[in-house]
Amino acid sequence: MAYNFSPDSEPTTRTLLRQVLDTAVPRTPRRARSTRSGCWSLHSAQRDLLETPSSRRQRSQTKMTARRRSHTATSVDRLARVQASGHLEEQTPRTLLKNIILTAPESSIVMPEAVVKLVPSPQVVQPSRRKSSRGSLELQLPELEPPTTLAPGLLAPGRRKQRLRLSEFQQGMDWGHLSQEPRENADASSLTSSLNLTFAMPLQPQSVKRPGLARRPPTRRVVDVGTFLQDLRDTSLTVAPPGESHRTPVATVPMDTVLEDTQPFSQPLAGHSPSVHHSLPCPSPSGAKEVEGAASRRTRSSGPGLQNSYSGPGKPAQLLARKMEEVEAIAMGLPNTSSVSGEDGIEPLQNGVGEEAEESMEESMSVREVEKAAEEQGSARAEEPEGHTEVAAAAGSLGAIEAKEPEGSSEDEDTSASPELPPSTPEFLRTRRLQFPEPAPPPSTAVLPSELPKHLSARIPPRPRIPGSRPRQDPNKAGLNHYAKLFSFYAKMPMEKKAEEMVEKCLDKYFQHLCNDLEVFAAHAGRKTVRPEDLELLLRRQGLVTDQVSLHVLVERHLPLEYRQLLIPCAFSGNSVFPSQ
Amino acid sequence: MMEEEEWSEEQQRFSYLQRLKAAVHYTVGCLCEEVASDKDMQFSKQTIAAISEVTFGQCENFAKDLEMFARHAKRSTINTEDVKLLARRSHSLLKYITEKNEDIAQLNLEKKAKKKKKLEDENRNSVESAEAGVEES
């Protein structure tokens, strides 16, 4: 008898009930059995170290029985009692209480055996209950919800026990099976047992299956692995502290909302989550930097689109309202960009834009992407006469490619802003792209770009700024502004505005370059879609992926679990997955 | 014994590398002399050495990249496409390479045409000779 459980804790309801039952003489025909149990308790008491009242003995007895005797023995004992009670039509409160105590889980969570104990008993109870009332079974199930009076003390431990039970029987568990038993017990006894509440858990199988990830399901969005990985590299290159990547996502989100109040695409978690194959629609957590760039591009590109929508008929009022602000910003920004841009060759940039547009087109066909490409092309066309090739390139490159960074807002963006349905966008994009070099705007959706040039040329004087619009800055580099700020933060030294601008410019070129490479790699393999193999090649050329460090290692190092799963699928089936440290 | 073999292998490899580097250095030196005589400027030895080292390193990179590109395209042979991909960064170089590639392709076509003609001629000759032989006999 090595059991030294000291019941010095406050007497629970169970113990009180035990006391009552043991001390008082039962007046039912089941007296013989109850006395028998009383004899057992006496016997055990002799060996028991506890000299507390009989209630304690009773409790210790049950615990001892759990340990010493076979479970079947106790279950048989219980079975006898329960069956007897089940057969009895008239039941006294005493018997009911006894049933509760016998069949309900123990109050102590220190005893996992209690879990096993309960298993045979419910199964035993079930057939007895079924005999009594079949129809009540169905009725019992809905009763799971409303818990009637219940001792709080029983509730909490019951729940904890419930978890233990669930973890054991998760896989093959028949929820209905287990849920029925408590119902039956509840039916049998007028008092609700703790089983009522404890078995309320199974109604949330989702949370049980993935206890560690019991949150809202992750929204799936199109993911751009390339851009994301580029951003990864970028963060490691520019600043290096790993914490930055953690900072960027938080920082980018408000930034984007500020920058693009009309297009609520939210920056995905920065630097994390290598997105899935481009062919798979998955969230694209491109680096925050790229997101920024994309945001800037998008705002810009959406600006011209806005202008079109602004002038175009039949545009949803929502679109108009949203883009009006952007239009202003762009109108303001365009004269600025003319002064800033200049050296970059026009043709290569345009080509780059065209390529990127095609690449983006070929990649996952998210509506946003299409919209961006459309807008960027339109904006590019519009800016051609003004010589803002850089703007066009900027709008085209990242905006199109990184338009894959879908986050919650992106869906809104897609639904509200996209003028066309996703299925039709690919063709539309292709037609667009083909006509991109030509001055003639494409027939489809080209309403935006067609109206854009006229509008831009018409609107020469900048409009008065609407309060609350985007801050006055270079629209094509607005997204990279955030990255430049991060750069200056980690530089530990004050940076001039010009230096920040240069950093932005370099980032811009860099991202364009990378995306260009991605597209070329895909074409080299005879494909039209960028796949993770292309990205691995890119990373290999950059020296991030070596013979010692594989892509998976990088994924594990830098991505959060949700995104990591997309790239390195692992089976769940009740496992707890922890990221490698 | 095994270690000795490995060591000697390494030595061989090392000496091979050295020879290659020396060859590159010599070629770079010749080219620099040409340029020097062209522009009427002098090249210091350190400059030539630096250039040859950089060239050698770049050659290694190129080789690795070419192999990666070929593997990426699921091929086991390095192709002109791989080379073009490698040279895409420099526009003038890319243009040059593309032109050369086209020239070579043309040459190949011409050669093939010539070979076909030759084969046909030979076939005719052999047939004729066979017939002649038959006739004679």
From TrEMBL, chain A:
Annotated GO CC locations: inner kinetochore; nuclear body
Entries under InterPro entries matching the protein: CENP-T, CENP-T/H4_C, CENP-T_N, Histone-fold
Compositionally biased intervals (Polar residues): 301-311
GO MF, one annotated term: protein heterodimerization activity
Entry keyword annotation includes Phosphoprotein: yes
Domain CENP-T/Histone H4 histone fold positions: 475-571
Biological role stated in the UniProt entry: Component of the CENPA-NAC (nucleosome-associated) complex, a complex that plays a central role in assembly of kinetochore proteins, mitotic progression and chromosome segregation. The CENPA-NAC complex recruits the CENPA-CAD (nucleosome distal) complex and may be involved in incorporation of newly synthesized CENPA into centromeres. Part of a nucleosome-associated complex that binds specifically to histone H3-containing nucleosomes at the centromere, as opposed to nucleosomes containing CENPA.
Family per record: Belongs to the CENP-T/CNN1 family.
Designated name of the protein: Centromere protein T
Organismal lineage: Eukaryota, Metazoa, Chordata, Craniata, Vertebrata
From TrEMBL, chain B:
Protein's cellular compartments: Chromosome, Centromere, Kinetochore; Nucleus
InterPro entries xrefs: CENP-S/Mhf1, Histone-fold
Keyword set, alphabetical order: Cell cycle, Cell division, Centromere, Chromosome, DNA damage, DNA repair, DNA-binding, Kinetochore, Mitosis, Nucleus
UniProt GO BP: cell division; DNA repair
GO cellular component, one term: FANCM-MHF complex
Principal location listed in the UniProt entry: nucleus
UniProt region (Disordered), positions on chain: 115-137
Composition skew (Low complexity), residue ranges: 126-137
GO molecular function annotation: DNA binding; protein heterodimerization activity
Keyword NAD: no
Family: Belongs to the TAF9 family. CENP-S/MHF1 subfamily.
PANTHER family documented for this protein: CENTROMERE PROTEIN S (PTHR22980:SF0), CORTISTATIN (PTHR22980)
UniProt protein name: Centromere protein S
Organism listed in the record: Bos taurus
